Please model this.
Amino acid sequence: MPPPSPQSETSAASAELPKRTKTTTSPVWDHYIVSWEKGVKMVKCKYCQVTYKNPSGTSTLTAHMSKHPLQLKPKPKPPIPAWCQQTSAEVSKISTQKQAEATGLLKKWIACSAKPFSTVEDPYFVAYSKSLNSAYKVPCRQTLRKLLVNDYAERRKAVTAELKSVTSRFSITCDMWKARSKRQPYMVITLHWINNEWVLKNIVLDFRYLPVIHTADNMKAVILDTLKEHSLQHRILCCTTDGAAAMKAMFRVLSLDTEKDRRLFGRNSANVPSFRIWCVAHLVETVARVATGEKADIVDEVRSLVSFIHRPTIDEEYLKFAERSNLCLPLDVSTRWNSVLNMIEAAFEQRESITNYISTKKGDIIKQKLTDEEWMEIDDMVQLLKPLEQVTVECSAYKPEWISALATKMLGKLEEIVVDEWTAEDEFAFPAAARMLDPSIKDGEYNDEEQRAKHRGQLKTLVKLYEAARSRARASNKATNSLPPTTPT
Model:
């Protein structure tokens, strides 16, 4: 028989050695004896000699320890700082009402700040709560979760009841976006309406995870499902979206279903079909991109310079070179409004420091250095984009004055239609009456009841005249279309 090879001896010796294992950090291992038999891990209980062969985790071992409850030691809690500790003399009582109020504020803080439920079981958080009122009992995470789920259900019922009581139709705003961390797509649906007291209101109706392809049919199915949950599918008047082709196609297929439901269930509502509005802020952003399209090469060069300076080692070197305490040089983001303006405006303000710093470097980045003429073109772009930024800011913030200004223009159009039939002795006060049409103001600023009644009467008269003029116009058009065609002589 030939002698065994060195390789076979090495493999045989390695088979007798125990395999390398991970560090055991679970306290359950304190109750077991670990041994190796022919390369297999054997775990034996110290109290009943039960042996487990090669356990993959600690679940089985932990379950076995339920047979030896006296051997288990409670997990030590971290020490509480002295400033959080209270003596028995400082302990006070708390009423049931105060306990409920404090828990309500705790629920709002957890929900609105997206804190994990386990926060309430952190010993330092509990100690902090006890320092405010030692008699307050912090709920555990299971109780907190149940309370929040119940609050959500009650809030949902209240919102549904409020929406059913509204006599007007609703508008929705739909938008798609992705979470930055895991790139998960979501759809947000916001509902807007004017309640029976003429107060403009809005609410986030749904925040839906949408992992499927963002086709028109898939997005329509999500929106329609949300509307049906609140019985609103037949009461939608307007849908505001961005200018994406998928959003346009989505509204076309959505409007077919909503109009069908409106004819079936919304017989008492006005016969006005639903329509789509392109978000003004998105429209302005599109205009800004078109305006800077011819200078895209210069914008790309500025983006390359800013990206280079943003490197971890370069930014500190640049700050020392430019003698600045902070960078203040933002990089544009394709999904963020006015980000191109913010980038080129900040770069133009630091153009001397950027040019001098890039001149000290070598490599391809030196080719991105801008000339004086190119910096002047960037200044022209900044001056061009500034008014568009102002429009975006104004559109993003709710301004009651905008509605009043729009109502003033609407009343002016009404006056043009019925000017020949207006027989009021007093001049019509368009600005004052327009503020009455503003749902956020209405007639709250009228101090004189007589003047308020007069403007209300003028509004009602003007609307009646407008309706009469529209009826005559429709009758005239119908009569014109019904006339037989004339034959040329």
Q: What stands out?
A: Strands lie at 32-37, 40-45, 51-53, 170-178, 185-194, 200-209, 236-241, 275-278.
